[in-house]
Design goal:
Elements (H helix, E strand, L loop, with lengths): L1 E4 L7 H12 L7 E6 L18 E5 L2 E4 L3 H12 L5 E8 L11 H11 L3 E7 L9 H15 L8 E7 L11 E3 L10 E5 L2 E5 L12 H6 L3 E7 L1
Parallel strand pairs: 1-2, 1-5, 2-4, 5-6, 6-7, 8-11
Antiparallel strand pairs: 3-4, 7-11, 9-10
């Protein structure tokens, strides 16, 4: 049984695309259950809820909306809703989670939480290059290809996969799967100041892209795959 979750919310197009990719995978045993936040939790990191109850609404036989974070969703799914899950799949996030982004990403935190419980996981994100719009049909196709590869590979306990899909111009060549190291370069950080208020401002596309890192691979038009460890 696969657990599907995200940080953009249960109604986001990305998790529907993820489910579409899973349906295409071979094997009747790959049934899935969706356990995802009822609202957006982008950038929440590995926050968990311990000081209040967590309301859960069952939307269908295999779909649950959780009034909590992505890590909460993984905890609940693993401990309450799914017996012996084989994988936790998180995404497809609308926006990249490259390099040091993984420390603030709710998408990645969901599979990190799974790894803490000994469950294998894949976090999948899609870089956004404005003014382009995400083609979710292509995202499904690429994600199917990625999952078919990664789910056949061995994965050491305490490790998980982080995947970033590129944002390509129409007619661009198909991206390749590239296994690489995560960038440790910081994001560009600037602030716009209005009186006593500071507004974060950073240009994602102008971040440092050390050659061969996941940022460089994804920005170059390929699918960046990194193996992360606890």
């Amino acid at each position: 049984m696969l657990i599907l979750t995200n940080d953009d919310g249960i109604d986001a197009p990305g998790i529907k695309a993820l489910a579409g990719a899973v349906i295409r995978l071979p094997g009747d045993e790959l049934s899935s259950v969706v356990v995802a936040p009822q609202s957006q939790h982008s950038g929440c990191g590995h926050q968990v809820t311990t000081n209040r109850g967590i309301q859960v609404s069952q939307k269908s036989v295999n779909s649950y909306a959780v009034a909590g974070t992505p890590a909460d969703c993984s905890r609940l799914a693993i401990n309450q809703f799914v017996e012996q899950p084989s994988w936790v799949l998180s995404g497809i996030n609308a926006g990249g989670n490259l390099g040091t982004d993984v420390y603030i990403s709710g998408t990645v935190a969901a599979v990190r939480e799974a790894a803490l419980h000994g469950i294998k996981g894949v976090a999948i994100s899609h870089r956004i290059k404005r003014p382009l719009f995400i083609d979710w049909d292509w995202a499904i196709t690429w994600t199917e290809k990625v999952l078919a590869d990664l789910m056949e590979r061995s994965l050491e306990p305490g490790s998980f996969w982080n995947v970033n899909l590129p944002h390509l111009e129409p007619g661009a060549k198909d991206p390749e799967l590239v296994f690489c190291q995560p960038s440790i370069d910081p994001l560009p950080v600037n602030f716009r100041i209005e009186e006593d208020t500071y507004y974060y401002h950073g240009d994602y596309g102008k971040r440092d892209r050390s050659p061969g890192t996941d940022v460089d691979v994804c920005f170059s038009g390929n699918i960046a795959i990194t193996k992360l460890s606890l």
